[in-house]
Automatic annotation (TrEMBL):
N-acetyltransferase domain boundaries: 16-155
Protein name: GNAT family protein
Alphabetized Gene3D superfamilies for the sequence: 3.40.630.30
Organism: Arthrobacter ginkgonis
Superkingdom in the source lineage: Bacteria
Listed Pfam families: Acetyltransf_3 (PF13302)
Cross-referenced InterPro entries: Acyl_CoA_acyltransferase, GNAT_dom
Length: 198
């Protein structure tokens, strides 16, 4: 089996473009994270404005190591940056990826940009990389994220209890979801239907 190609790639849709993350995204991402102050939600791991440079550096270092392919999400209508997302925990041998470390500016909710981002990522994972499954994870207490993942059509594989520590040191239970290749056509149809209504 050929290894998963890890070189940066641009994924473009009607509403949003996912660009390879770069240091020059910093100022736009700081503006995006200030929209709704999403880093203050205790059950998320979103960088604060003063930590954005370090977070970009962390993700790019993981890309260099071959375990992450990070993106900045840009709204096509006005060019504004919306947030970040990644392919992470890459298993090149299978291949298998997790879509995660995702956050978006609060005002983008309900506009279809996140649904289209997931469509672009899933299409690349299943149709280009040849993944038999794609994983998504979230905090047990992040009900908004869990509902969004379930709306995609992902199935709950299980809950990893006391799996990791949050920024404040508390133990986190992690919900693990997946979509397998056989489910992708139905998931794609559902996302396209949602986007036609957006």
């Amino acid at each position: 089996m050929e290894p998963v190609p890890l070189e940066p790639v641009t994924l473009s849709g009607r509403l949003v473009t996912l660009e390879p993350l770069a240091p020059d995204h910093h100022d736009g991402l700081v503006e995006a994270v200030r929209d709704g102050e999403v880093w203050k939600l205790w059950y998320t791991a979103v960088p604060a404005p003063e930590g954005m440079s370090a977070e970009i550096g962390r993700r790019l270092a993981l890309q260099e190591a071959g375990s992450m392919l990070p993106f900045a999400a840009r709204r096509n209508a006005d060019g504004a940056l919306l947030g970040m997302t990644t392919f992470m925990n890459i298993d090149a041998g299978l291949p298998r990826v997790e879509i995660g470390s995702t956050w978006n500016r609060a005002s983008a909710r309900g506009t279809g940009t996140n649904a289209e981002s997931k469509l672009l990522l899933l299409a690349h994972a299943f149709e280009v990389l040849g993944c038999p499954a794609v994983e998504l994870r979230t905090h047990w207490m992040n009900h908004q994220s869990r509902a969004a993942i379930e709306r995609l059509g992902a199935k709950l594989d299980g809950v990893l209890r006391s799996h990791a520590r949050t920024a404040d040191g508390a133990l986190r239970d992690t919900c693990v979801y997946s979509i397998v290749a056989a489910e992708w056509p139905q998931v794609r149809s559902g996302l396209l239907h949602r986007l036609r209504r957006a």
